[in-house]
Amino acid sequence: MSSASPTRYPPGARERAVRMVLEVTPSYDSQWAAIGAVAQKLGVSSAETVRRWVRQAEVDAGQRPGTTSEESAEVKRLRRENAELRRANEILKAASAFFAAELDRPSNR
Questions:
Q1: Which of 15, 21, 33, 87 has the most CB atoms less than 10 A away?
Q2: CA dist., res. 54 & res. 18, Å (int)
Q3: How far apart are CA 102 and CA 7, in angstroms?
Q4: Positive/negative CA dihedral, 26, 28, 33, 39
C-alpha cells in the first residue's frame, strides 16, 4: 500500500465500474478478467481498485460478509465525535484545575 493519497475518480465512477463488471463478466473467462477490462476501459489506474469496489458493492448488497460502507461511515463519524469529546474533556479538566487553584489561594481582601 502506498503512502500517497488515493486517486480521486469522478462521482459515479465506482458505481459505473461495478455495474459494468457485473454486465460483462459472463463474456470473460473470469471475473478478474472482466475487472481488468473494465478498469482499462474506464482509465482506472489499477484493476485492484475496481476489484475492491466490486467486493465492497457485494458486501453492501449482503452478498458477501464484511463491513458495509454505511457501517464504516458510522464508525468513522463516531471516532471523530469521540476525539472531539476527549478534547472537550481535557479542556474542562484544565479549566477545573485552574479554578480549583484560584479558590485555594488566600485572598488579600
A1: 21
A2: 5
A3: 53
A4: negative
Question: For the chain, how many residues are written?
Answer: 109
CB 52 within 8 A of CB 19: no
**Nearest C-alpha neighbor of 2 from the set 48, 61, 35:** 48
What are the angstrom distances between the C-alpha of 38 and each of 19, 22, 24, 86? Answer: 10, 10, 8, 45
Question: Could you tell me which residues come within 8 angstroms of residue 47 by beta carbon, excluding any fewer than 6 positions away?
Answer: 32, 35, 36, 39, 40
Angle at 28 between CA 14 and CA 24, to 5 degrees: 40
Q: How far apart are CA 24 and CA 31, in angstroms?
A: 9
Residue 102's φ and ψ, nearest 5 degrees, are -65, -40
Task: Decide: pTM greater than 0.90.
Answer: no
> Where on the phi/psi map is residue 91: left (φ > 0), alpha (ψ -120 to 50), or beta?
alpha
What are the pLDDT digits (tens) for 52-87?
999 999 999 999 999 999 999 999 999 999 999 999
